[in-house]
Amino acid sequence: MNRTLELTRTNVATLSLSALTVLPCSPLDQIDAAHAAGFDAVGLRVHPSLPTDIDVMANAALRRAIERRIATTSLRVLDVDVIRVGPQTDVSAMKPLLVFAGGLGAESIIFTSLLRDECRPSDERECALKIAELCEASDRHGVRPIVEFIPFRSIASLSDAIRIAGLVSHPNFGICVDVLHLCRSGGGAADLANADPRLLASIQLCDAPQTAPTDLVSESRSDRLHPGDGALPLVDIIRAIPPNVAVSVEVPNVTWQTRSPTERAQRAAICARRVLAAARSES
Fold first, then answer.
1. What are 56-114's pLDDT values in tens digits?
2. CB 204 within 8 A of CB 146
3. Which of 12, 28, 178, 213 is deepest in the core (most CB within 10 A)?
4. Residue 13 domain boundaries
5. Best CA proximity match to 26, nearest among 79, 66, 83, 74
6. Number of structural domains, the chain?
7. Is 55 exposed, middle or buried (0-12, 13-18, 19+ CB in 10 A)?
8. Which CATH number is 33's domain given?
């Protein structure tokens, strides 16, 4: 089916394949999988977070290969991830990453805060200053820093992210809404509907059981369900976001790691489109 028509019917500006859905794999394999599954864009992990992640920034040949593969497939780069920002962050050291992201045409760079036990409440203002510095540096390369709030980190909820936005007070600041983190932090569709739409940069789509597990870290990294296979109020959440907000499908699941990146991308795309179509049909 024509990809543009599919997205028009589901009222989504961009459908992107998150790296976590297909990791561990080469970013080149991810790009090929996204193209084969009919995605419009990819979110690339270029800064290692997990032990199996490839350090793209340490490999100039790989970076050039990524640039060529993106051009060949005509995919967009929705975002690159992931960096941590805290009171001691050296923003100037991020310049090579920002240059690479800008050269790829990436819309945003995803960052998170430090773990809760690594930050004190008194660090918040200093963190906001570092984020403002990152916003200014990123703006020079055409990239938007967007915070992903996570329940087990110091910026733990949508309300935390909105409060930080007020402290940062920079037009380049945005928020990435991971639906799992939104729900596990006690938020929902009403919170999104009441948020300033200018802050909402993208949404990461997955599903999960209604009851949260004890280990939120493990669920987040390796035990998510495909959209529509769980109990999260995805249709209500999608209907609460502005229609121009990009949707990224992020479904890391350890039981799917034996499948090829293309198989995982195709399953993610099919499930996401069903939920997006349902949200539009009920609007």
1. 999 999 999 999 999 999 999 999 998 999 999 999 999 999 999 999 999 999 999 99
2. no
3. 12
4. 3-281
5. 66
6. 1
7. exposed
8. 3.20.20.150
